[in-house]
Prior knowledge:
Structural class: alpha+beta
CATH superfamily: RPB5-like RNA polymerase subunit
Shape: globular
Number of domains: 1
CATH topology: Eukaryotic RPB6 RNA polymerase subunit
Number of helices: 1
CATH class: Alpha Beta
Radius of gyration: 14 Å
Order of helices and strands: EHEEE
Helix content: 10-25%
CATH architecture: Alpha-Beta Complex
Largest sheet: 4 strands, mixed
Strand content: 25-35%
Number of strands: 4
Amino acid sequence: MKKKVIIKNHILIPDHTKLTKKEVDDVVKKYNVSTRQFPSISKKDPAIDSLDVEPGDVIKIKRKSFTDNDTIFYRVVIDE
């Protein structure tokens, strides 16, 4: 029997979080951008498989750094 790997628990996979509507509005206002300007992430991406996302949702990705502060990126979910 094959062992099932939970990809989001792997040390090299950064934390992925689905943002609420208010959090998205705050990010858009803070950076003076629209969600269409965010890079995209596929709905089928294994890292967000457990987040119950729909196209148009925004994902916050927190990458840990061993040498500096953590870095935050935002991606908009697309249906690909």
